[in-house]
Amino acid sequence: NAGVTQTPKFRVLKTGQSMTLLCAQDMNHEYMYWYRQDPGMGLRLIHYSVGEGTTAKGEVPDGYNVSRLKKQNFLLGLESAAPSQTSVYFCASRPNHRGGQETQYFGPGTRLLVL
Amino acid sequence: EDQVTQSPEALRLQEGESSSLNCSYTVSGLRGLFWYRQDPGKGPEFLFTLYSAGEEKEKERLKATLTKKESFLHITAPKPEDSATYLCAVGWKGNEKLTFGTGTRLTIIP
After folding, report:
1. How many domains does chain A have?
2. Closest CA in chain A for residue B98
3. What domain count does chain B have?
4. Domain limits at B43?
5. What is each CA distance from A21 to A70, A85, B51, in whole angstroms?
6. For B44-102, what is each residue's pLDDT tens digit?
7. Burial letters for B82-95: b for 16+ Cβ neighbours within 10 Å, e otherwise?
8. Of B9, B92, B95, B98, which to mutate for an interface test with A (greatest number of A Cβ within 10 Å)?
9. How remote is the C-alpha of B24 from its chain's centroid?
10. What CATH number has the domain bearing residue A9?
11. Which helix (H) or strand (E) holds B25?
């Protein structure tokens, strides 16, 4: 199993450009997440999905959109990139088990620089 | 407000010098506390999940413990390959979000 994979690994955008980050998991997990990681701050949740066709806002959703058309894929879109969106983006997934908070498994990250 | 605080921010140890990392939290209704290891330029790698006070888990040179207010990650006789940033995250009932601490950057000197 590849686990959680993310593409691209690195991208440079100009302010106002758009792009889509792709997350794929082969563990048949129900839940998927997008986080951003910035220096001096903990990982912060952008959006998440509890199953195919569902999405929900996290802690810092503004400026981002997501889609979960297939169970194994979770896409993060930036419609009009801003320098404040320069960050490292991580995707995570977890199974849906009743009782307790199940462990999230992370991808390798996408480094995004917005000029 | 639910908060997770990790200390120290950075820790330098000689190889073989044991120590502990701290994660304190103010979450009400804990659903789980997670420890991850993160190497530079990589994603967080899962280490442990703890669900209730008194629980302990071990893996090689690492041992994680949990009380009602904090968790410790004990590292025994560390090696240079244990150098990494260690992240703590907390989940609570009724919410899908995990709250992450800012991490402890651990450096083991040969």
Report:
1. 1
2. A45
3. 1
4. 4-109
5. 15, 13, 33
6. 999 999 988 999 999 999 999 999 899 999 999 999 999 999 999 998 877 778 899 99
7. bbbbbbbbbbbeee
8. B98
9. 10
10. 2.60.40.10
11. strand B19-25
**Which residue is listed with tokens 């190889």?**
B15
CB-count exposure of residue B34 (10 Å: 0-12, 13-18, 19+): buried
* Cβ neighbours, 10 Å, residue A27: 13
A60 touches chain B (CB under 8 A): no
- Angstrom distances, CA of residue A47 to CA of A61, A100, B54: 6, 21, 33
Residue B65 maps to which CATH number? 2.60.40.10
Sign of dihedral through CA atoms A10, A15, A17, A21? positive
* A42: nearest CB among B49, B92, B101: B101
Burial class (CB within 10 angstroms; exposed 0-12, middle 13-18, buried 19+) of B60? exposed
* Structural domain for A77, as ranges: 4-114
Query: pLDDT tens-digit profile of B12-29?
Result: 999 999 999 999 998 778
Q: B16 φ, ψ to 5°?
A: 90, -10
